[in-house]
Design a protein that fits this description.
Layout lengths: L2 E4 L6 H6 L3 E3 L4 E5 L8 H4 L11 H5 L7 H7 L6 H16 L3 E13 L2 E9 L5 E9 L8 H8 L8 E11 L3 E9 L1 H21 L17 E6 L4 H15 L4 E6 L7 H18 L4 E6 L4 H4 L5 H8 L5 E5 L7 H5 L2 E3 L2 H138 L2 H6 L4 E3 L15 E6 L2 E6 L4
Parallel strand pairs: 6-8, 9-10, 9-11, 11-12, 12-13
Antiparallel strand pairs: 1-3, 2-3, 4-5, 4-7, 5-6, 7-8, 14-15, 15-16
Helix pairs in contact: 6-7, 8-13, 9-11
């Protein structure tokens, strides 16, 4: 007898047992026999369907048995048509697998053509290698029951990489082969998978010490320069720039834009690369914050932001990251990792505006306080100065009186002392004059004798120098006579001169006609070449 297996949670095992379900120790599952009224067990069989223990005998017998080559040859049997063979197998599939079952798999391919949906489902092992693959379809009529609800719940149609829980019935077509017919898709499971994915990413970033790293930056107390990472020409960027652009136009804020793709297969790397570029720009021009914004979207659209690369780039940013993604209910990975999170881009710009205005109000308050303090100090200083001036005037008058009396006393004493010193100076000068007269007279008496002595000494030295000069002159005269050319010529030497009258000192200089000077005259001569 066939078994219909149930999916019974552990907490419901006693209730299932009381209703007549039994436990298959080999399969480790609860079941009821075929033919049992399934109404009491609807809570446990609706999500799984029936899994027959084996095909019915009639269905199996519909498949022709294999014939040996010898039997075929001797009986003259050519073989059954392929269509008949596959049709028989299709009967077995319809008879035993027509009941749709819940299957969990990931989408590797998706096509929507002529209103029909075609999916390729795949299951991978721990290493990411496929271990099972199945092509499924949902024709336009069949998918009407779940398609609209799925899109409204998830925010879009099934996409590659999405993990689904779907009810599939097996089908074997002799022409198109084996496939699965999609009866319904659990949209809540997709949202649960997104949440589970986000949770796994948060745990991974937390284990690596990245989850709260950007939180260590203090919130900016003022904004002068920011970097904005956003999709180009996006509505969210326009919402942000409505207020931030006015601040930039007023010269209160500098904004650097870094474009990135926020949806699609390359969204993670595009956003992460833009965040890294903004971090690099901080090294050139210091930033107060990096702002990550985009407009609102469905849960499926926002799921592209739940990527490890984006979380890591935010965690490693050198300044606080402010996230403003247009959603109020759901929080994406950047909302958890960034130092500051806002519901919408406009709330980010509003926070920046209020921070700047608050800073301006603080400055105005400080200026008022400073002005009050300065006014009080000036008033206090003015009173102090007036009092000091009065004190100075009184003390000056008193000291002037004292100084006048002192000056009169000093003047009288100075006159007396000056007269005394003049008297003493006059006496001293008279004594000095008399001394000088005596000294000059004595020196004048001795002057003729000193002059005669000096004159004799000078005459003696002059005579000695004249004698030495005469001797030196005689020596020089004898040397000059010895070097006289005429005396050399008289000894038989001759002096050769060129045509220009210059003395020829070497044979190389002698050429053509020369003049030869002898002691008694000159002769011209011509030189012959060797």
């Amino acid at each position: 007898m066939n078994k219909i297996y149930l999916t019974v949670p552990f907490r419901d095992k006693d209730a299932a047992k009381q209703l007549g379900a039994r436990f298959d120790g080999e399969a480790k599952r609860w079941f009821v026999n075929e033919g049992t009224d399934l109404a009491p067990f609807a809570a446990w069989c609706g999500a799984v369907g029936s899994i027959p223990e084996r095909a019915t005998r009639a269905s199996v017998e519909a498949i022709p048995t294999r014939q040996s080559p010898a039997e075929s040859t001797s009986a003259g049997v050519v073989g059954m048509p392929l269509s008949s063979y596959l049709s028989a197998i299709a009967q077995v599939v319809r008879a035993n697998c027509a009941e749709p079952l819940w299957v969990m798999a990931e989408i590797s391919e998706v096509r929507l053509r002529n209103g029909h949906l075609y999916l390729t489902l795949v299951e991978s092992d721990g290493a990411g290698q496929p271990k099972a693959k199945l092509g499924c379809n949902a024709f336009s009529v069949e998918r009407r029951s779940w398609w609209k609800q799925f899109i409204e719940t998830v925010g879009g149609p099934p996409e590659v990489g999405m993990k689904l829980l779907l009810q599939v019935a097996a089908k074997l077509d002799p022409l198109y082969g084996f496939s699965g017919e999609i009866h319904t898709v659990d949209a809540a499971f997709v949202l649960g998978e997104m949440a589970a994915k986000l949770k796994r990413l948060l745990v991974q970033l937390d284990n690596e010490g990245l989850l709260k790293r950007n939180h260590r930056w203090q919130k900016p107390v003022d904004f002068t320069s920011v970097a904005v990472v956003a999709p180009p020409d996006a509505a969210g960027l326009g919402d942000f720039m409505r207020e931030a652009g006015a601040l930039e136009a007023a010269g209160l804020l500098q904004i650097q834009h870094f474009a990135a793709t926020f949806q699609g297969a390359n969204a993670a790397e595009s956003v992460a690369a833009a965040l890294r570029e903004a971090s690099t720009a901080h090294g050139r021009t210091p930033l107060d914050a990096i702002i990550l914004i985009r407009g609102g979207g469905a849960s499926l659209d926002l799921d592209w932001m739940n990527a490890y690369a984006i979380g890591k780039a935010i965690a490693e940013a050198p300044v606080p990251v402010m996230v403003g993604i247009g959603h109020e209910r759901d929080r994406t990975l950047p909302d958890h990792v960034a130092a500051m999170s806002f519901d919408t881009p406009s709330k980010v710009s509003a926070y920046i505006r209020e921070t700047i205005l608050g800073r301006c109000r603080d400055v105005e308050g400080w200026m008022d306080t400073v002005q009050r303090i300065i006014a009080a100090r000036v008033e206090q200083a003015s009173q102090t100065v007036d009092q000091c001036l009065q004190d100075i005037k009184r003390k000056t008058d008193s000291r002037m009186s004292q100084a006048s009396a002192s000056l009169q006393q000093l003047a009288g004493a100075l006159v007396t002392r000056t007269q005394q010193r003049l008297d003493r100076a006059e006496t001293a000068i008279g004594q000095s004059l008399r001394q000088c007269e005596r000294s000059v007279a004595t020196r004048l008496d001795r002057a003729p004798q000193l002059v005669d002595a000096q004159l004799q000494s000078a005459q003696h030295r002059i005579a000695e120098r004249i004698t030495k000069a005469d001797a030196a002159l005689a020596i020089l005269q004898s040397k000059a006579e010895a070097l006289d050319p005429s005396r050399v010529l008289k000894r038989g030497f001759a002096l050769v001169m060129g045509a220009d009258g210059r003395v020829v000192k070497s044979a190389d200089q002698a050429a053509g006609e020369v003049r030869i000077r002898f002691a008694d005259g000159e002769r011209r001569a011509g030189l012959l070449d060797r």
